[in-house]
Amino acid sequence: MAYKEKDTKKWSAQWFETTAKGEKKKRRKRGFETKREALEYERQKKLSSSRSMDMKLSEFVEVYFEDKQNELKDRTMKNKRYMMEQHIIPYFGEQMLSEITASQIIQWQNEMQTKGFSESYLRMIQNQLTCIFTHASRIYNLHTNPCKKVKRMGNSDSRSLDFWTTEEYQRFIQTIEPGTRYYLIFEILFWTGCRIGDDHVIIRLKLDKPSKYAGLS
């Protein structure tokens, strides 16, 4: 139950969490300006702790990333979060995960398909929504997975992929840290039109003078 600190006059939230050993531990977070903020924080923590499916999709996304933090690479996490925040949370974020229906997903797909994205990018977006519901179903016993009832949008077949538009590439490159090895490789590939071989591509930069990229090979 939230309470007000006598010294700071601010509100604190407190709740119990069950450890992996089954022990209950009391948790606390201070510094809320209002009782309402403290109570809302308590509510979210209790839902997260119990992993109840009566939580908003935006809240479950945080549960998903918490569960996957040791399984997925940092760059993969960043890319997945970007697509979820751009294309999924604005539509479903405030809805209860257990109340999202197959018909709503079809409406979402229809709107996504009007935005001019390539078939491959549409499939990538679809995969993010699918993985959210798959995780909820497999790990937290979500009763119904609406993604199983609808056809996936987009196409992952590389033989039928469209080229990225400049806008799509700019959205992608924003997820890569500037100045890194991969940032330079993607910049060269996109703007010069270089092709990637069946297995891998090796880019050698022959520079006349030392550079921070001189060791790239």
What is the end-to-end distance?
58 Å
Give me the secondary-structure category: mainly alpha
Report the biggest beta sheet as strand number plus sense, adding barrel if it closes: 3 strands, antiparallel
Order of helices and strands: EEEHHHHHHHH
CATH architecture of the largest domain: Orthogonal Bundle
List keywords for this structure.
217 residues; mainly alpha; DNA polymerase, domain 1; 3 domains; 3-stranded antiparallel sheet; 46% helix; globular; disordered C terminus
What does this structure look like?
The protein has helices spanning 35-50, 57-68, 74-87, 89-92, 102-112, 119-140, 166-173, 181-192; strands at 3-4, 11-18, 24-32. With 217 residues, the protein is mostly helical. It has three domains: 2-49, no CATH class; 57-148, Tyrosine recombinase, N-terminal domain (DNA polymerase, domain 1), CATH 1.10.150.130; 160-216, no CATH class. Helix 3 (74-87) crosses helix 6.
Give a brief outline of the structure:
The protein has helices at residues 35-50, 57-68, 74-87, 89-92, 102-112, 119-140, 166-173, 181-192; strands spanning 3-4, 11-18, 24-32. The radius of gyration is 22 Å and the shape is globular.
How are the SSEs ordered, and which strands pair?
Elements (H helix, E strand, L loop, with lengths): L2 E2 L6 E8 L5 E9 L2 H16 L6 H12 L5 H14 L1 H4 L9 H11 L6 H22 L25 H8 L7 H12 L25
Helix pairs in contact: 3-6
